[in-house]
Design brief:
The structure is a homodimer of 272-residue chains. Chain A is α/β, with parallel strands linked by helices and 272 residues long. The first copy, chain A, is built from eleven helices and ten strands. The longest helix of chain A is centred in the N-terminal third of the chain and has 16 residues. Chains A and B meet through helix 5, helix 7 and helix 8 of A and helix 5, helix 7 and helix 8 of B.
Chain lengths: 272, 272
């Protein structure tokens, strides 16, 4: 294996199946404003959630290899599906580079805040069917009761910018009614798109339920780990993220603005 | 090029980026019940609409090659994106086999029924941005005014089975308000998923507007062409379609039932 010397100035590499992982970029920038970020969105092969485990593990390996070209000091898997099914592949492909998954971080934070030991999880069909959040949560604390609900319309609603639309509220009400009577005190947003709908989701479930944003959770874990290993970036300004995509979706600019609240920097096309 | 002898007993090959093209299978079975059908859904690489033209043309070539293994007597492109951007690639890869595209058939039928010469088209963002329906319609009749509207939430609403849900009606009302004041008399369903929502769409636009289902339109064209070339199938029973997919989505069975109203036959996995 080819070794390179990581320094605190090396970038943090983040990848996702598409644009959703930008919520992780946003969360990293909020608490680690001096870090350089290299982001790869596999827009040619999005979505991963409906694909088989074999396919997802192959993609995870390739996506990691793309980031490794930029000699990152850490890899963050912003994709819940890859976190659930292929974090070991990423760790192997990353060699000595630490790799964090959004799912593990979200599960960990949820476990640490739930007092009633009843946690709700929402995500895509694939994430919910994989039962990965429930497994990760119960590995940390087997006494916690986990209730999950797939919300397949939340991603397209977020991408349409229907973040506060009456139809979105109707759909959210219907999906989240699933948790009535289960007395959850914590709800995990188990899909990187969902923070875009956080306000509406929070209003639907009411103020008694703590919302866990896995993107924020993984950003916190990244900060801890970088501090512990003496690898915190020291740059004075906030560098713009370096963006790579595997295909040129017309909507990348629009979605970047929706996720990040600013205009899109240059985007580089890479082959997969 | 390797030549094979087509007979009336050869199958009709149909491909789509995913499950949506099953509306074409349904339309073919309705008016050509004796035909054998081989269907390929590229579920590993769905959706095509957000990808670049170069990528789509590569996929179109590969998808056609998969169907050619089964020596079809005709190829139907059930994918609007491929019809718009790569029908020439399919025709070339198919050699002497005739190839029909869902888009051309839908445009042709719309032109033949519009009295006011004002046609509305709804489809995915990619189909609408490509302007392909407007081009195809104006190539047949340059005097027709075409108004288009992208309806990105219709595919996920259809796949969730929200075909008659209050939220779906709100969203449809908002999308289709675009046509108010344009006095269209014909509305083309420019996406293979939309026939699933046909009832709701029809009620939203009202009885004065003729709905054109491109899946039905291409089935009609297929019947004409087979009759003209003496290639109509003669089998006494309705054969079950032979289904190929490029990845195993958990939801294929559920979606097959939604699209076809019957249980899914065996599905074969092919590599792409």
């Amino acid at each position: 294996m080819h070794h390179h010397k990581n320094t605190p100035e090396s970038p943090i590499g983040i990848f996702d199946s598409g644009v959703g992982g930008l919520t992780v970029v946003r969360a990293i920038q909020a608490i680690l404003p001096s870090e350089r970020i290299i982001y790869f969105g596999d827009t040619a092969r999005v979505p991963y959630g409906s694909k088989s485990q074999v396919t997802i593990r192959k993609y995870a390996q390739e996506d990691t290899a793309i980031l490794m070209r930029y000699q990152p000091k850490m890899i963050i898997v912003a994709c819940n599906t890859v976190s659930a099914l292929a974090l070991d592949v990423v760790r192997k492909a990353g060699g000595s580079i630490p790799a964090l998954g959004v799912l593990e971080a979200g599960a960990e934070l949820a476990v640490s805040v739930s007092r009633q030991k009843r946690i709700g999880v929402i995500g895509t069909q694939a994430t919910v069917c994989s039962n990965a959040y429930a497994c990760a949560i119960n590995e940390l604390d087997p006494d916690i009761e986990v209730h999950s609900k797939a919300c397949p319309l939340f991603v397209p609603l977020a991408e349409e910018g229907f973040t506060d639309h009456p139809a979105a509220r109707l759909i959210a009400g219907e999906y989240l009614r699933e948790f009535d009577g289960h007395e959850i005190d914590t709800l995990v947003l188990g899909c990187t798109h969902y923070p875009i709908l956080r306000g509406m989701i929070g209003q639907t479930v009411g103020p008694g339920i703590r919302i866990i944003d896995s993107a924020e959770a993984v950003a916190r874990r990244a900060k801890e780990l970088l501090a512990e290993t003496g690898m915190l970036g020291m740059s004075g300004e906030t560098p713009r993220p370096h963006l790579l995509v595997s295909d040129l979706p017309q909507k990348f600019g629009m979605l970047y603005r929706l996720f990040m609240g600013s205009d899109v920097p240059d985007v580089e096309l890479v082959d997969v």
